[in-house]
TrEMBL record:
It is a multi-pass membrane protein. Keywords: Cell membrane, Membrane, Transmembrane, Transmembrane helix. It holds the Pfam family Polysacc_synt. This is Polysaccharide biosynthesis protein. It comes from Candidatus Avacidaminococcus intestinavium. The chain crosses the membrane at residues 49-70, 91-111, 123-144, 156-177, 183-208, 239-261, 281-305, 326-346, 358-378, 390-410, 416-441, 453-471, 483-502. PANTHER family: LIPID II FLIPPASE MURJ, PST FAMILY PREDICTED COLANIC ACID TRANSPORTER. InterPro entries: PG_synth_SpoVB (IPR024923), Poly_Biosynth_Transport (IPR050833), Polysacc_synth (IPR002797). Its main location: membrane. It is found in: Cell membrane. One of its GO terms (cellular component) is plasma membrane.
């Protein structure tokens, strides 16, 4: 029987991800009311630069650490796992320091050369500098715990970090607002530091709490070969580079869209303002829903990496196949109904969330991206876990080439416009996922049973029909759009579960077992 450790881990990370998103959304509302559009604009000019520094300084390292630590843990070499962590911690401390100093040095350059148009954003940039160091160190801790398949500590630290960050941001923005918007924006930006520091303290506590337990598990009389510091650092870098390239699919896709879509819409005949508006519906309203819906699959991917890596280290290839197939089945189980529901409720969802029906076109045509991106995330995690990180990296590059071509030609065609951009994104994720599946089948005979795919697709179709007709009937009886949308989603979800139980696709006893184990 397969251990459900990675399923519990995925569930824990999913819940944490949703809580963090909720706190973040609440924070954005408070800050928007407090600072207004101008103040938020100053904050948004600085924060993406900080995210870029953190992304580069810790790119791929957490997953690389989790893979190597999982291998050590599988062989009961807890001393080796701790050594990997210490080396990675030192390496990340150096990286964090360098990129913190780089951000400090870049602040004047970006302002002086008009890369950041408003000089008042300088204060926010400087306020974010020390947070780069602590956020980079934090990445090492999270990778170490994920390697042990202990997802609760990273999840708790994420939630506490976000909460402290938000409280500090709002408090400092409020206190500094009388001195001017630039200082209020800097105060909000500074919130990243106490947030990262608190998250680091939480994980340090969990590390010391579990240290003696790991030492107790160390087999007596067995001395594992200790790798040199240079060997560990080199292996981390070799793993981290392809992992980071494969895991930046969404940032790369959004970057391509930002550079190409507005201009190609103008070629299609849209005025500049119209092109900007269409792009806003697509990138600012449609894509965030895709990202929100794929939080569970992103958590599943993070959880499957150390689980598969552990089995791979022990040469348990049948176990790898079972875990991978379980992860893929769960991916489809979660993403197909979300895709189907968003497809038929695009307009009601657009009205409920954004107060406009005009984003519905982008939302509906981006719905398939939920399933395709989910499959890409999970298959990428599996391939990384079995020591093939280069494969998803090259597959992503191939898919991005198709994305660029499709966006270039389809978006400029008046017949397609923004729909062309949406399908460029869908095909991008689809090609990457299919290529990953091809190599999983080639090397490990991992594939989804066609019969199961058909059953899940049928259940998702029932979900879509139920949600659509429920919404229409509720509107006829005079229910508001928001209430009708929520009840339609609930009725669709209920019908999906009923169909799965009737078809035997969901085992009620197995669900009970997983729930019981997740509480332990």
């Amino acid at each position: 029987m397969i251990k459900d450790k990675f399923l519990r881990g995925a569930l824990i990370l999913t819940v944490a991800g949703l809580v963090v998103k909720f706190i973040g959304a609440f924070n954005r509302i408070l800050l928007s009311r407090l600072l207004g559009g101008e103040g938020i604009g100053l904050y948004q000019m600085a924060y993406p630069v900080y995210l870029l520094m953190v992304s580069i300084s810790s790119a791929g390292i957490p997953i690389a650490i989790s893979i190597i630590v999982a291998e050590k843990v599988a062989k009961r070499d807890f001393a080796g796992a701790s050594r990997i962590f210490r080396v990675s911690l030192g390496f990340m401390a150096i990286m964090g320091t360098l990129f913190a100093l780089l951000l400090y040095g870049l602040a004047n350059f970006l302002i002086a050369h008009d890369y950041i148009r408003d000089a008042r954003a300088y204060y926010a940039l400087i306020a974010l500098t020390p947070a780069v160091f602590f956020a980079t160190i934090l990445a090492s801790f999270r990778g170490f715990f994920q390697g042990h398949q202990m997802m609760t500590p990273p999840a708790i630290s994420q939630i506490i970090e976000q909460f402290v960050r938000v409280v500090t941001m709002v408090a400092l923005a409020y206190l500094l607002l009388p001195r001017g918007l630039e200082y209020a924006a800097a105060g909000a930006a500074f919130g990243a530091l106490p947030g990262a520091l608190t998250g680091l303290l939480v994980l340090t506590y969990f590390y010391w709490k579990n240290r003696q337990r790991w030492q107790a598990f160390e087999p007596t009389g067995v001395v594992a070969k200790q790798e040199k510091v240079s060997e560990i650092a080199l292996r981390l870098v070799k793993l981290a580079l392809p992992v980071s390239c494969a895991n930046i699919m969404l940032p790369v896709v959004t970057g391509i869209d930002m550079l190409l879509v507005p201009g190609r819409l103008e070629v299609a005949g849209y005025m500049t303002e119209q092109a900007t508006t269409q792009f806003g519906y697509f990138a600012g309203m449609g894509l965030p829903l895709v990202m929100l819906a794929t939080i569970p699959t992103l958590s599943l991917a993070a959880s499957i990496v150390p689980a598969v890596s552990e089995a791979f280290a022990l040469h348990e290839y049948e176990n790898i196949k079972k875990k991978a197939q379980t992860a893929l089945q769960l991916c489809l189980l979660l993403t197909l109904p979300a895709m189907a529901g968003l497809l038929v409720l695009a307009e009601p969802v657009s009205l409920a969330l954004y107060g406009t029906r005009y984003a519905a076109l982008s939302i509906a045509h981006l719905a398939p991206a939920i399933c395709l991106l989910g499959l890409h995330q999970v298959t990428t995690g599996i391939l990384q876990g079995v020591g093939r990180p280069m494969i998803p990296m090259f597959n992503m590059l191939i898919s991005i080439f198709f994305k660029i071509v499709l966006v270039w030609f389809l978006t400029a065609d008046p017949e397609y416009g923004i729909i062309g951009a949406a399908w460029g994104t869908n095909i991008n994720f689809g090609i990457a996922a299919l290529l990953n599946m091809f190599f999983l089948n080639k090397y490990f005979y991992i594939a989804l049973p066609l019969k199961q795919v058909i059953k899940l697709t049928g259940a998702a179709l029932v979900t879509a029909l139920t949600a659509y007709f429920a919404y229409e009937e509720l509107r006829i009886f005079g229910a508001s759009n928001l209430l009708s949308t929520l009840l339609a989603i609930a009725s669709g979800a209920c019908s999906y579960l009923i169909v799965l139980v009737i078809s035997g696709e969901v085992d009620r006893e197995k669900i009970k077992q997983i729930i019981k184990r997740s509480k332990k």
